[in-house]
Specification:
The protein has 552 residues and is an alpha/beta fold. The chain has helices at 11-22, 85-95, 109-124, 152-164, 169-182, 229-244, 263-275, 309-316, 353-368, 370-380, 385-398, 408-422, 425-442, 452-467, 477-487, 492-505, 522-525, 531-548; strands at residues 26-28, 37-40, 49-56, 73-79, 101-106, 129-134, 184-191, 208-211, 222-225, 251-257, 282-289, 298-306, 328-329.
């Protein structure tokens, strides 16, 4: 799978430098490529240092959380690989002062061993070091070493807050352990991650989701049939609540994108989590956001943490790292009334036999041309132009008795409103714009003489302005503009003939510059009339025939 990286061996070091170039207040130790450590440049040596880290590929964790109020340093391993003992040693030596340091470690074998050995070495050198192991994954309730997942970031936040406040190492470590002990997290994914330079580590069937995946692409504990977002949210919520036990304390919820869930879908999942079994318990929400990812895994995780006053204060205090999403209180959606819009009422219904006859002729022509127009559109689009114009014809025919047929300006305005709804899509909007402009032109005012030619010209001007096309772009305007020019002398027959010639000319236009045809190659356009232009030609022909033979 193509990826946005250069040499696969440099992805972490280049990624770190990219972060540093855009995040003030951070620095790195000069030890690339073996020592990949991001530090807080403005660290206070009199405060407890909070250090975390692990394999890369979980961004923004861990380096993204280095800064005021959170981590003092992050030790980065290669993608999905624990950092070396030497790198952790270097981080401790760089940031640990007399106040000591806390290592926040996710419960993976490599992380436990490497951070543990580095902690022992640091103690031998005289540093005061505490270690907190985070294992918030509840996928396997009987696991002796539950994996550390996105809940780890809440440990960073609580420990970082207390360290910033000047708390002792013992107090920082105790609070961090309490949070780690109370955390529960569960993930669910529709596809796994793709490590740089390789294909996906595993393939999912299209109709399968996995529950309880790790953040390194490890298989879930269970495969289930794909379902709705609400079903996924209910499953995850039920299992998290079961893992918490019977406590009734208010909760903080983290909604974490594991890397590839679109924001819209994350919002849907958040809605479903908050309106499901968790709804009465959740007080604060972190996210939805990328908190701790697994590269491009198409999945999410949810984390719960019981709240008390101290945790509320710690979680909601301001921090420096922009990657942290400050928790927000849960609230019902605020709904405001739709504002009343004063619209000019349609003119009163009136009749004019000649106008009625012309409109009926146009409706007949469009309904008869439905299949032909659809076939033309099928050559360059989705084959619905005939159906769209036929729908407009049916709407107009069904409302003839309600239209102000004896009032040209009122009729144009009424048609503008009706066609915007009856036709749908861009065709309906363009038709509505044309009749709106027609009404303005017929109304005269400071410009024009209020003639039909003036009205049609004004309608075309409005369509050109908002539609972004003009004559020669292979659209309805290639029939409409020649017709308007011919109509300037009042000759409807000449206008109809000009529209037919203009529509025929579109078959020779192999370079469409607007509309759906603009996305179609010249070979597909050759010899095919633009369906919109053809529809306009059929309309003008129907008008010409009806006005030429009043008895028809």
């Amino acid at each position: 799978m193509p990826r946005f990286h250069n040499d696969r061996d440099d992805v972490v070091t280049e990624g770190i430098d990219g972060l540093l170039r855009t995040t003030p207040g951070l620095a790195r130790l000069d030890g690339f490529p073996d020592v990949k450590v991001v530090v807080r440049a403005d660290r206070d040596p009199d405060r407890v240092a909070v250090i975390s880290g692990g394999g890369s590929g979980h961004e923004p964790a861990h380096a993204g959380y280095v800064g005021q109020g959170m981590l003092t340093a992050a030790v980065c391993g290669d993608v999905f690989a624990s950092p070396s003992v030497d790198a952790i040693d270097a981080a401790i030596e760089a940031v640990c002062g007399e106040a000591g340091c806390l290592l926040v470690v996710k419960d993976y074998t490599g992380d436990r061993l490497n951070f543990g050995l580095a902690a022992e070495r640091a103690r031998e050198r005289g540093h005061d070091v505490e270690v907190v192991i985070v294992g918030d994954d509840i996928a396997r309730p009987d696991a002796e070493h539950p994996r550390g997942l996105a809940g780890t970031v809440l440990v960073h936040k609580v420990a970082g807050h207390l360290a910033e406040e000047g708390a002792s190492l013992a107090d920082v470590a105790d609070a961090a352990r309490d949070v780690a002990d109370d955390l529960v997290t569960l993930g669910l994914a529709l596809s796994t991650s793709t490590p740089p330079g390789s294909g996906r580590s595993r393939e999912f069937d299209d109709d399968v989701a996995e529950v309880g995946l790790g953040i390194h692409g490890e298989p879930g504990v269970e495969r289930i049939d794909t379902a709705s977002a609400a079903a996924y949210a209910e499953l995850v919520a039920d299992r998290l609540l079961e893992a918490l036990g019977d406590e009734d304390r208010p909760l903080a919820l983290v909604v974490n994108d594991l890397g590839a869930v679109p924001p819209l879908e994350l919002d849907i999942l958040t809605h479903d989590l908050l309106t499901g079994p968790l709804g009465d318990r959740v007080e604060l929400v972190v996210g939805p956001a990328r908190i701790m990812t697994s590269l491009n895994m198409n999945g999410f995780s949810a984390t719960l943490l019981p709240l008390d006053d101290a945790r509320r204060t710690a979680l909601t205090s301001a921090v420096g790292p922009p990657a942290w999403r400050r928790p927000v209180p849960v609230a019902e959606p605020t709904v405001e009334a739709v504002p009343a819009i004063e619209r000019e009422e349609d003119a009163e219904a009136s009749d004019d036999p000649d106008v009625r006859r012309v409109l009926e002729a146009v409706c007949d022509a469009l309904e008869e041309a439905r299949d032909e127009l659809d076939d033309l559109d099928g050559e360059v689009g989705d084959g619905d132009t005939g159906a769209t114009f036929a729908a407009a014809a049916r709407s107009i025919r069904g409302s003839l008795d309600d239209l102000p047929l004896a009032d040209p300006i009122g009729l144009s305005r009424a048609l503008s409103r009706r066609l915007a709804t009856a036709m749908g899509g861009s065709a309906g909007v363009l038709a509505s714009l044309f009749f709106s402009g027609l009404a303005q032109g017929l109304d005269g005012g400071d410009e024009g003489d209020g003639s039909w030619a003036d009205g049609v010209a004004r309608g075309i001007e409005v369509v050109e302005r908002y539609g972004g096309a003009t004559q020669g772009d292979r659209t309805v305007l290639d029939a409409l503009i020649p017709a308007a020019e011919a109509l300037d002398g009042g000759d409807v027959e000449a206008a109809a003939s000009a529209a037919e010639d203009g529509a025929a000319a579109t078959a020779e236009m192999e370079d469409a510059k607007a509309g759906r045809s603009a996305y179609v190659g010249a070979d597909a356009l050759a010899g095919v009339r633009d369906p919109g232009a053809e529809a306009v030609a059929r309309i003008l022909r129907a008008i010409a025939d009806a006005t030429a033979d009043p008895g028809a």
